[in-house]
Design goal:
Elements lengths: L3 H4 L2 E6 L4 E6 L6 E8 L5 H6 L6 E5 L3 E2 L27 E3 L2 E2 L12 H7 L4 E3 L3 H11 L2 E7 L16 H5 L5 E3 L29 E6 L4 H8 L4 E6 L11 E4 L10 H10 L7 E4 L1 H9 L4 E17 L5 E12 L8 E7 L5 E6 L4 E4 L14 H9 L1
Parallel strand pairs: 3-4, 4-6, 5-7, 6-8, 11-12, 11-13, 13-14, 14-19
Antiparallel strand pairs: 1-2, 1-9, 2-8, 3-9, 10-12, 15-16, 15-17, 17-18, 18-19
Helix pairs in contact: 7-8
The structure holds glutamine.
Length: 387
């Protein structure tokens, strides 16, 4: 076996404030730049790397040991969805870890993280003091960074994150239909969740949901399909209003929601029907809020982890949630017809909104998890029950 440490090339992470972190390469070697963000989850690197919401970002994992359970095989279900990944490829620009483990062991592992990164041409760097790096990002806020190999010059072309429409880069390019899947079983709504909307009919025809694909994670589609709805996945800027459908879902997606005006206009048009059920997740929360007239701002260092506590407004119910976002809805700009649905218990920021009378709601966190806790999956039941 080759000595991976011996073969590793020296590599530098250079932050836009001038700080430099030295490490070693274990993935593909090409210089990259992106927004440096940290994720404090202890597991889930295959899901996070393939989450399209990480496009344009260099992902720092604060959990020190990474790679020890390898990477699952890339297989697809009959409907074309990836079985174990959140999309068909790695979307993060790079992964930055403290202690990469070349040795791996897991019943479902097909290859090492290093081999996967090399095949997908994504850099991975190890030996980085990720505690120190995270302290810098927490104190100064997220910033741009570059990864430079060996003796290459320190300067890559200028790059930025804000203002770039990453959604357009990762959204599907044409409409994709998925039939609902009765077989997987439809879990009934939890009566105790206290998120009450009037239930509409529950006829036998399977309901159609338009899914605005801003960079949708596989498990969101799966969570809808297993509740036996038909999903019509449309490109982020497609005007779906001419289609025949029973509910609107707005997906997660990378980057700055202020670059997604076309989607906001289409959502606003759909909201002319006050009875249409609408549910959004993450970027979907931000776009629904924008369609309702609210404003978005950028958090200092975002929420990326498996243990973000949120409280359902008007109740004492708290949930531990999976999150990945850098922007947030400004609660103070919500119109009088809207109210916060969830609040983050660490920093008080918005974690979801609801309309006071119409069946429109959204979550800033990820009820579909993948990876992370599944405690809020009942929100899909709420949505499907409204159809
Ligand atoms: N996961 C997401 O949908 C991210 C939403 C948005 N791009 C943000 O960073 O805030």
């Amino acid at each position: 076996m080759s000595n991976i440490i011996g073969d590793e090339k020296k590599v530098k992470l250079i932050l836009s404030d001038g700080s430099v972190f030295h490490g070693r390469s274990f993935g593909y070697e090409k210089p990259v730049a992106g927004e440096v963000v940290f994720n404090t989850a202890m597991t889930g690197y295959p899901e996070s790397l393939t989450d399209p919401s990480y496009a344009g970002q260099l992902m720092v994992l604060t959990y020190p040991l990474v790679g020890n359970y390898g990477v699952p095989p890339f297989t697809t279900e009959p409907n074309g969805l990836a079985t174990f990944m959140e999309s068909e490829k790695i979307h993060a620009e790079a992964i930055i870890v403290s202690d990469y483990s070349e040795e791996y062991s897991h019943w479902n592992a097909a290859e090492s993280l290093a081999d996967w990164l090399k095949r997908e041409q994504v850099p991975g760097i190890t030996g980085i003091d990720t505690r120190e790096l995270t302290k810098v990002l927490r104190e100064q806020g997220v910033m741009m960074g570059r990864i430079v190999f060996g003796n290459e010059p320190d300067h890559l072309p200028e790059s930025s994150y804000a203002g770039i429409n990453y959604v357009d880069k990762v959204s599907c390019k044409e409409i994709i239909h998925y039939a609902g899947n009765k077989k997987n079983g439809y879990s009934k709504d939890t009566p105790s969740t206290q998120l009450k909307f009037q239930l509409s009919n529950s006829g036998s025809r399977s309901k159609k949901v338009v899914l605005v694909d801003c960079g949708v994670k596989t498990n969101i589609i799966r969570c809808l399909l297993k509740r036996n709805v038909e999903v019509i996945r449309v490109p982020w800027d497609y005007d779906f209003n001419e289609l025949e459908f029973d509910g609107l879902f707005i997906s997660n997606g990378p980057g700055d929601p202020d670059t997604c005006d076309a989607a906001v206009q289409n959502i606003r048009k759909a909201m002319q029907n006050p009875k249409l059920p609408v549910f959004g997740i993450c970027m979907g929360n931000q776009l629904l809020a924008k369609a309702g007239g609210a404003k978005i701002y950028k958090l200092k260092y975002g929420h990326r982890s498996h243990n973000q506590p949120v409280r359902m407004v008007g109740t004492e119910r708290c949930f531990i949630t999976s999150q990945n976002h850098g922007y947030a809805v400004d609660n103070n700009t919500l119109g009088t017809d809207w109210e916060p649905l969830f609040i983050n218990m660490n920093d008080g920021s918005n974690e979801g909104i609801r309309h006071k009378t119409n069946p429109w709601f959204s979550a800033q966190f990820h009820p579909e998890a993948a990876s992370g806790p599944t405690d809020t999956e009942f929100l899909f039941d709420k949505f499907v029950n409204l159809l």
